[in-house]
């Protein structure tokens, strides 16, 4: 049997990037660490500055290094925006919708919350409760109107909608954090980005009623995790994920990562 001799040859920049990548992945250079300067890297590898710059670009594209103007290059956190951005762009190219993301969550979260209920420590439970309270505080703040009249919802305020999404995302991240599963921890932030914003239109609801309704929906999940009751946790997340037909229809026509407007 004969094999093709077409073996890809690496450039000097690729060789340097591979070496540095292994150092980062091994943990020798931790997240937040300052990378050696260009002259230092040139001396260590015996290459030109142009090669080091090309290698740095490769590492940046891989989400391993971040260059800050005037400050130098730094090792990124494993959970950095580059990963989420790359995933979102790939799914947008595939013409994925908000419903694709929702379906994935409906498959993933029931098992994830069961794991959280089994694995959560007291500190995890406290973090989940704190995240829920923070989210509800944002909801109350966004929903508040000076005259106390009924409101059309947080979706009327673009900034408020973003704040609500961030608060809810941090709540879900705290739940996934309670699983102590590293893959879920890494997926938490990208999932929040894929989830996208949701703008609920329709009948107005008083502020107190809105917050009470949301608490009644999410508190059973927190209670189940605190009680280490996997079955109750699964039932609670199913209630959260039970969406009206109008929401499903809107998600099916909304590009993934964009705001879903639900009538």
What can you tell me about this protein's structure?
By secondary structure, the protein is mainly α. It folds into 2 domains: 64 residues, Winged helix-like DNA-binding domain superfamily/Winged helix DNA-binding domain (Arc Repressor Mutant, subunit A); 181 residues, GntR ligand-binding domain-like (Four Helix Bundle (Hemerythrin (Met), subunit A), Up-down Bundle), CATH 1.20.120.530. The protein is built from 11 helices and 4 strands, in the order αααββαααααβαααβ. Helix 5 runs antiparallel to helix 10. It is elongated and about 65 Å long.
| Termini Cα gap | 64 Å
Strand segment count: 4
Secondary-structure class: mainly alpha
Tell me the strand order in the biggest sheet: 1-2
Overall pLDDT metric:
88
CATH architecture annotation name of the largest domain: Up-down Bundle
Low-pLDDT windows of residues: 145-155
Q: Largest sheet, described in full?
A: 2 strands, antiparallel
Brief digest:
By secondary structure, the protein is mainly alpha-helical.
Q: What topology emerges from the helices and strands here?
A:
Elements: H1 12-26, H2 38-45, H3 49-61, E1 65-68, E2 72-75, H4 81-93, H5 98-119, H6 122-143, H7 158-177, H8 182-195, E3 198-200, H9 207-226, H10 230-240, H11 245-252, E4 260-262
Parallel strand pairs: 3-4
Antiparallel strand pairs: 1-2
Q: Tags for this entry?
A:
2 domains, Arc Repressor Mutant, subunit A, 11 helices, 263 residues, elongated, Four Helix Bundle (Hemerythrin (Met), subunit A), two-stranded antiparallel sheet
């Amino acid at each position: 049997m004969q094999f093709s001799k077409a073996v890809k040859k690496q450039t000097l920049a690729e060789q340097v990037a591979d070496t540095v990548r292994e150092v980062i992945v091994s943990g020798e250079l931790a997240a937040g660490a300052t990378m050696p300067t260009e002259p230092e890297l040139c001396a260590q590898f015996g290459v030109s500055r142009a090669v080091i710059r090309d290698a740095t670009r490769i590492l940046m594209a891989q989400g391993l290094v971040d260059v800050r103007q005037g400050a130098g290059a730094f090792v990124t956190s494993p959970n950095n925006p580059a990963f989420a951005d790359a995933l979102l762009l790939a799914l947008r190219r595939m013409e994925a919708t908000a419903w694709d993301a929702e379906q994935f969550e409906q498959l993933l979260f029931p098992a994830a919350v069961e794991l959280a209920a089994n694995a959560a420590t007291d500190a995890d439970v406290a973090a989940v409760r704190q995240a829920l309270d923070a989210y509800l505080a944002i909801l109350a703040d966004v929903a508040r109107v000076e005259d106390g009249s009924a409101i059309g919802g947080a979706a009327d305020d673009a900034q408020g909608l973003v704040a609500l999404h961030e608060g809810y995302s941090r709540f879900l991240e705290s739940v996934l954090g309670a699983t102590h599963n590293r893959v879920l921890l890494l997926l938490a932030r990208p999932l929040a980005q894929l989830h996208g914003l949701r703008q609920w239109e329709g009948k107005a609801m008083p502020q107190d009623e809105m917050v009470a309704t949301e608490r009644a929906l999410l508190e059973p999940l927190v209670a189940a995790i605190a009680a280490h009751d996997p079955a109750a946790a699964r039932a609670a997340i199913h209630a959260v994920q039970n969406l009206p037909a109008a929401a499903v229809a809107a998600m099916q026509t909304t590009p993934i990562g964009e705001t879903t407007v639900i009538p």
